[in-house]
Amino acid sequence: xxxxxxxxxxKVLNIFNKKKIFWLLLALVVISLVPILLLAGYNYPCADDxxxxxxxxxxxxDTGSIFQVIKAAMENxxxxxxxxxxxxxxxxxxxxxxGIFGEEYYAVTTWITVFLLIAACSYFFKxxxxxxxxxxxxxxxxxxxxxxxxxxxxxxxxxxxxxxxAGVVNYTWAFGFLLLLTAAVLSGYKEEVKWKKAxxxxxxxxxxxxxxxxNYITALQGCLWxxxxxxxxxxxxxxxxxxxxxxxxxNSPGLIIPYAVLLISFGISVTAPGNKVRMGSSSGMGILESxxxxxxxxxxxxxxxxxxxxxxxxxxxAIPSMVSIGKVKRVAVKNGSLILGLVLGFCLVAAGFTPxxxxxxxxxxxxxxxxVFFVWLLILYLQMLLFVVWLxxxxxxxxxNTKKKSEGMQTAILLxxxxxxxxxxxxxxxxxxxxxxxxxxxxSGEAKQYELENKARxxxxxxxxxxxxxxxxxxxxxxxxxxxxxxxxxxxxxxxVVAEYYEKKSVTAR
Length: 510
Prior knowledge:
The protein is an all-alpha fold. It has 23 helices and two strands. The chain has helices spanning 2-15, 18-39, 48-63, 66-83, 88-95, 108-132, 137-153, 158-163, 165-190, 194-212, 216-240, 245-250, 253-270, 273-279, 287-306, 309-328, 335-351, 354-359, 366-394, 401-428, 434-444, 446-461, 493-501; strands spanning 468-471, 506-509. α23 (493-501) links the parallel β1 and β2.
C-alpha cells in the first residue's frame, strides 16, 4: 500500500515537472508580449523625438544617404556635448529615431527594445546561473522567464520604457547593454580559447562605451557594479587562489580593459561643457544631501511602488529553481558575505537616485523610475539567490527524489496563484501590466483612432502651401503611446520643435 501511495504521489508530481513548467511559462511570456508588439504599429513620434532627430531627418530627406544620416547624428552629438548634455551615446541613439525614414517605421524602436531585453536577460542568466553555478536549462529558463515578465510587464512606465523613442533608447537600452556587458565580462573571465577571449574583450569594450556614454543613472550604477565585480574577482584570485596582485592583473585583461574604458567613457560624459549649461537652468541638491536622500528613496520607492503582489509571487515561484541550482554546487556562503551582498545591493540601488537628485532635486519622470526599477529587480533576484544558497549551506544534503520533484509542484502552485491574482487584478485595473494596457488600447479602438488622428495631422503638416498649421487636439490619448500633446500656444516648446521639424512658421492645436 505504501508503495502504491508513493507511486501515486510521483505520478502527480511528474505532471508538474520543471520541463513542463518552463514551456508553460514560455508560452505565457510570449503571449503577454504579443499585444505590446502589435500596439507599436499604431505609434508615432512626439515631443523630444522631433527636436532630437531633426538634423538626421533633414539629412535623409535631402540626400537619402545613410552615411549622411549618421554624420548628422554625430554632429548632433558634438553640438549637445558643447551646449546641453554629455550623454553622447544617448544623443546618438535619439538622433536616429526610426520615424525620420517615415513615420510608419517608428514601431521599430519597440521591437528592438523587447528583443534586446530578451537577449540580454537570457545571456546574463545563462552565464551567471549556467556557466558559474551549473544550473540546467530548465531551472535557469524558469528564473529568466519570471524575471523577464516582471521586468517588462511591471515596469513603472511602459510608455517611456517601451514606446517613446527618446525615453527608450536613453534608458531601457542602457540597462540591456549593462546586462550584456556584465555577462560578457563574466563569460570572458572563464574563457580559455584565445580567439574567443579576444572577441569577448572587443565586445565588452564596445558595450562599456555604450553604458558609460549613456544616461547617468545606468552609467554610475554600471561603474559601481563593475567595481564590486572587479574586487570580488581580486579577492578570489589573491586570497583563495593565492596569486599575487601582479599575477592577477597580468592574467585579467578581459576584466581591466573594459573597466578602464567604462570609466573613461563615463568621465568624458560627465565633464561635458554642455552639462554646466543644462544644470544652470535647474535647481538640484548638494552632493551630500543627494546621497543621503538617495538611501531614503531606495527604501521608500520599492516599498510603495515596485514590490507589488505579482512581483512577489513571481520571485517566490523562482525560489524552487534557485534551490535546485543551489544543490548542484554547494557553496559555503559565510554570514559576512551574505550581509555584504545585501548591503552592496542596496547601495547600488540607492546610487540610481543620486544623479537626478543632484542635478534636478527630484525623481519624477517615469523613465527615471524605470531605470532604477530594472536594477532593483535584478538585485532582488540575485540577493534572493544568494540567500537561498546561504540557507542551503546551513542544512544537510538531501537525496530524497520526491522532495526534488515537489519543487516543481511548489512552482506550479505559486504560478497558479499568480495567474488567478492577475486575472482578478486586470478585471479591476487594466493597467496592472503593460501587456493588458496594450491589449485594451487595441481592442477598445483607441489605438486605431490615435493612428487615424496622427495621419490627419501629417497630411496638414506635409502640405507645403500652409506655413501656419492649426491641428485638432487628440481625442484618442492611449496611455502607452502619447507622451505629450501639442498646445494652443505656438511658442510652447513642444509646438516649436514640431514646427521646426516640418519647417513651418507655427504649429498649434485647438
